[in-house]
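Subgroup meeting minutes
Present: P.N., E.W., G.H.
Scribe: E.W.

1. P.N. recapped why we're keeping a running log of single-chain structure predictions: easier to compare across weeks, and new members can see raw inputs and outputs side by side.
2. G.H. added today's entry (152 aa).
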Amino acid sequence: MNGPACNIHGTAIVLGTTGFLITGPSGSGKSALALACISEVRRRGRFAALVADDRVDLTLANGRIVARCPPAIRGLIEVRGSGIAEVETLSACVLDWAILPVRAPFDPRLPPEQEELQLEIGRSLPMLRAPIEAMLSPMDALAALLPEKLVL
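Output recorded in log:
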């Protein structure tokens, strides 16, 4: 059974078989994090793709949160300061996790336990914080945080 729908500010990607919604305010590094993760996973010989950048349509289908791209921006991603790029995309994905890009200094140093991103469709996603602009690659951070879920 399908449920409510909404359009939110964010970026949706698939890494392997796991769907991620990258969230945060404008300029926080969502698109850059998405491109970095997709590129790194592909270099490792695994599947990775963009679903939507900047705006994401969310729906509930059979109890799962599904992300789709609004047609007007399908296949496009912003490279901040450089322009808009065309990239290969998927039409939809099931979302498993939310990611919040964070920059040093980290405040709080450790995120709240079992942090969740509340969505306008009446559901939530477990949230991870991914360091950006650090010596640790975003994919290495995600692989360390989700070793049993993100096989790369």
